[in-house]
Amino acid sequence: MNRRRATRSTLASLITALVLATGAHAAGGAAPVSVTLDHTQISTELGGKFAFQSTITNRSATAADGLIAHLNVLSLRDGVYVDPEDWSSQRTHYLSTIPAAGSTTITWSMQAVNAGSFGVYVAVISPPPSVSPPTTGKALHIAVAERRTLNPGGILPLALGIPALLGLLILGLRLRSRTSRNC
Asked: How much is the pLDDT for 162?
């Protein structure tokens, strides 16, 4: 009896190790998937628009239904607040069925709204009642250079012109006042 229990325990441990090693999800029967990106790094400037693609591959022998891909952005430096919704207006994709050993590709369009160093990753989850952890691929490193411009948003003419115009107006009123006193 003890030998049978030990054999079952060893067998259960081997199955668990195999499931973890292959990336298969035991809970909910969810299909194992992988996420790959077409870039590892992108450099841009503040306000710059860019895009990249992620490929979600179904590595199982059965179709994967109801998968959800979600884009997230985080700062790789302390003290930089990131609101992912500012970076991309469409961060969630509800995927069509991916056939066994098939894949689907998503193009993610983004805009850099903070300067600094950022990580972008795509997580894929199964809908409830699955309790499987999300699958993520490698993070995409985004380097955003601060854009320094003398005329941000075309405001330089107004910033210089209005004070100059007010100065000329005041000067004109003073000269007029002097000439009217002398007459």
From this structure: 83
